[in-house]
Write a structure and sequence with these properties.
By secondary structure, the protein is an alpha+beta fold. It has 13 helices and 14 strands. A 7-stranded antiparallel beta sheet has the order 11-8-10-9-13-14-12, with helices on both faces. The chain has a 5-stranded antiparallel beta sheet with strand order 1-2-6-4-5. A two-stranded antiparallel ribbon has the order 3-7. The structure holds flavin-adenine dinucleotide. Flavin-adenine dinucleotide (FAD) binds next to helix 2 and strand 6. The site of flavin-adenine dinucleotide has 21 residues, from helix 2 and strand 6.
């Protein structure tokens, strides 16, 4: 389940068995002069199957897209044993595309076995840019304007002042401010233009240029996740939550989620960075840490922090997940996310495709959704 089956240079596609590790397929593509451009922080420990099932988003997704943009076709075994295989087209208008149901289905509708993805030639040049801002609202505005100018740097990250202090303490111009890093990549002339537009709007929005060094630091540390595990033996719970909002609620979401999390008894730290951007809005990625006030109530504290984040998100009219999916912990919030008949429709589709409820029961369709075979249609 981990083999590359074909690289098609004319179509710029790769077809593989989906058990292949993300770092391995990217390494093999790089050796041949290509990239898929999908580099999540978990790239060394995750698979193409997981990216499809979770609608994953890589660090360079501003340029290469999220996984639903990258995957062209797939082969899957349905719970009934039937096999579907979609075809490769640049686009097709032949009714609703059935295979798309599997993308983001979190393993509840079938097992994906093979897929074809888009690839690109390796970039000619990278442009590295960083700025700090006194107000995170100014950083958001600079990026909104860059996107409005139709420039999409591959990587953009805005760190709030708490995360800036945590990750960029060596940068003298960063004290008490929000650090923003950019990576533009592609053909030289395109990158030069993107860097020029990026500088223009950051300066216009009161940013202070910090050069390439903070971006080099980001490259060196971007897969480092051991910081949070240091605290587990000290009985401190750490976790991260991602969500998204339109631009007119982008800052509200930051305030609302951090505010709700800080109200939970035992919360020691709540911070955020914005990790993915669109012409229409932004993905926030929040980190929390704390310890339950009542001894040993770790699961209760963890759930309370998640519930606070979900509450804050919905108050700011956001979506409760941007790229990690729903799983079990967010499942009870799905009926607030999908209002109207959406949830019931999704449950009906699940019952038709998986009449015996054998695929990841309890996930995605609401906390109380479960059905026994005798009640199935
Ligand atoms: C430290 C860390 C950093 C992360 N960074 C990112 C990031 O930058 N971007 C991002 O998007 N995510 C990130 N994630 C989340 C996670 O790595 C991704 O969601 C990834 O896509 C999951 O892939 P996996 O192979 O690990 O899948 P798993 O965790 O093994 O499975 C995920 C789900 O997919 C289902 N599934 C697995 N295989 C199949 C299959 N063949 N057919 C159908 N369903 C299947 C499983 O049942 C499960 O529900 C991160 C996670 C961690 C721990």
């Amino acid at each position: 389940m981990d083999q590359i089956l074909e690289i098609n240079d004319q179509n710029l596609t790769v077809t593989c068995q989906v058990g292949i590790n993300g770092a391995n397929i990217e390494r093999d593509l790089n050796e041949k002069g290509y990239t898929m451009g999908h580099i999540p922080q978990s790239v060394r420990t995750s698979t193409i199957a997981g990216y499809i099932a979770m609608k994953a988003a890589g660090q360079f997704s501003g340029k290469y897209g999220k996984f639903e943009d990258i995957v062209l076709s797939l082969r899957a075994v349905l719970p009934t044993g039937e096999v579907i295989q979609s075809k490769n087209y640049p686009r097709s208008s032949t009714g609703p595309q059935f295979d798309r149901l599997l993308i983001g289905s979190e393993g509840t509708l079938g097992i994906v076995t093979e897929a074809t993805m888009k690839i690109w030639s390796l970039p000619e040049k990278q442009g590295l840019v960083s700025y700090t801002f006194a107000k995170i609202q100014d950083a958001l505005e600079a990026i909104r304007l860059i996107y409005r100018h139709q420039v999409n740097p591959a990587v953009i990250r805005i760190y709030d002042h708490v995360e800036t202090a945590r990750h960029f303490s060596a940068e003298k111009k960063a004290g008490g401010r929000a650090m923003v890093i950019f990576v533009c990549e592609g053909p030289t002339d395109v990158v030069d233009l993107e860097v020029q537009v990026t500088n223009q709007y950051c300066t216009q929005c009161n940013g202070i240029a910090c050069g390439e060094e903070p971006v080099h630091h980001w490259f060196e540390t971007r897969f480092d996740v051991k910081e949070s595990s240091k605290y587990t033996p000290l009985d401190v719970v750490f976790d991260t939550v991602e969500m998204a909002a339109m631009w007119d609620h982008a800052y509200d979401m930051y305030e609302s989620v951090i505010g709700e999390m800080r109200k939970v008894p035992g919360c020691l730290v709540a911070s955020g960075h914005a990790s993915h951007f669109y012409t229409q809005g932004v993905c926030w990625y929040f980190t929390f840490g704390g310890a339950p006030e009542i001894q040993d109530q770790f699961p209760e504290f963890h759930q309370a922090m998640w519930d606070a984040a979900m509450r804050g998100c919905l108050q700011a009219q956001g979506t409760i997940s941007h790229h990690h999916g729903i799983g079990i912990i967010r499942s009870k919030w799905m009926e607030k996310e999908w209002t109207g008949p959406d949830m019931e429709m999704a449950r009906r589709i699940k019952k038709v495709l998986d009449p015996n409820n054998i695929m990841n029961p309890g996930k995605l369709y609401g906390a109380d959704f479960d059905y026994s075979p005798e009640n199935a249609p």
